[in-house]
Amino acid sequence: MNADTVLIYLDRARYYALDAVSTISQCLCKPDATLKINGRTYKVEKLLGEGGFSFVYLIQDTSSLRHYALKKILISSSSGMGGGGGEEALKEVMKEVEAYRRFKHPNIIKILDVAVVQSDEDGGGGKVVYLFLPYYQRGNLQDVISHQSITNQRMSEKEMLRLFKGTCLAVRAMHKYRLPNIPQSSGADSENPFSNPSTASYPPKSKLDVPTLERGESSNALEPLINDGQVVFDGDEELVDEQNERTTRPDKGKGRAKDDDDLGELIPYAHRDIKPGNIIISDDGQPILMDFGSAKKARIHIDTRQEALLEQDVAAEHSTLPYRAPELFDVKTGSWLDEKCDVWSLGCTLFALAYDYSPFEDPSQGGGSIAMAVGSGRYKHPTNSEWSKGFKLLIDSMLILDPAQRPDIDKVIELTDGVIKTIR
């Protein structure tokens, strides 16, 4: 274990302790812990989950009595090697906020509100970011898997494929993302906020375009949670870069179909952490892809060994081990990384839904290195598998070591539809 890893663990342990102390003190001081943000009061009911420097709580609006999932992200005042702090950490969190806003699809979770609060925990210099998300009572696919393994009651192949296809549609919205096509202004360049790259900055001069409150402070008016289309945060560095490219290269895209041009430049994104725990089930039974903290532009060329090691470190921090694509374990200099890493994760997810474990953590193998298992690409379906040949071939088509040989998301959806048609 190197020094950087030790620092990360120490910093993370410190913040787990801080949050535990804060939560316990709130509960000891009041019968029900409450939180006041953006002019509204919420009752904190229970902890739903945790990971890294974030915690997810079930909260209830005391005015409307509606429930929400509140993601609390802790950011320390310093930006040491241990991570979790400073302006860079805040910048990363705001990228997650922007990702929620960027991808609009029925199978992608919507962010309802966001606030940045000055923390009195880290000596008063840190911040806490609150993300308000819909709360779905039915849990996620990992909960389904856990229930299946305990009760031995399995969902049907058709139901698995229905949930899988909905997830694929969400992934396609990311892989096929196009910029909104902003028409060139006939006026001076000064009218175009993206025309001069030197004026584009992160954060913008007004800092963060989100509510920023001191602890205990609240706005005078009772503000609703944001409406669809309202800008939560417009300081996204990636979005500025995309718009710079689009507006400063008017010839780009010539020769494309008109409909494609109306949609703007194709900028594929990869989720980078698709797994059963990040696919929640809505109250009407639809799969909803969530947790965009790892999402990034998909297509990256690795020019140097330093860049390769950096991408490996990012993947190790943000992409869950049993569902991580092989090209993210050993990044090669001169290679391309792209959205096909999500296709691999989808294959692992469907396998786990069918058999209760990912293909590279087979309990019959008695442990061993997941990284080595993934690198070999060797796995097997249980001999007593009840699923159709087409279903198993669908999984196999996604778990191909060479990303160039893996199907793209459109092909995965086509193959899924083909298997669904064979089910009576």
Automatic annotation (TrEMBL):
Keyword flag Acyltransferase: no
Q: Which residues form the Protein kinase domain?
A: 42-420
Region annotation (Disordered) maps to 182-227, 239-262
**Where, in this chain's numbering, is ATP bound?**
71
What UniProt keywords apply to this chain's record, in alphabetical order? ATP-binding, Kinase, Nucleotide-binding, Serine/threonine-protein kinase, Transferase
According to its UniProt record, the EC number is 2.7.11.1
Which SMART domains does this one have?
A: S_TKc
GO CC terms in record = Golgi apparatus; vacuole
Q: Which domain of life is it from?
A: Eukaryota
Q: Which reaction does it catalyse?
A: L-seryl-[protein] + ATP = O-phospho-L-seryl-[protein] + ADP + H(+); L-threonyl-[protein] + ATP = O-phospho-L-threonyl-[protein] + ADP + H(+)
In its UniProt entry, what is this protein called? Answer: non-specific serine/threonine protein kinase
- Source organism of the structure: Filobasidium floriforme
The record lists the lineage as:
Eukaryota, Fungi, Dikarya, Basidiomycota, Agaricomycotina
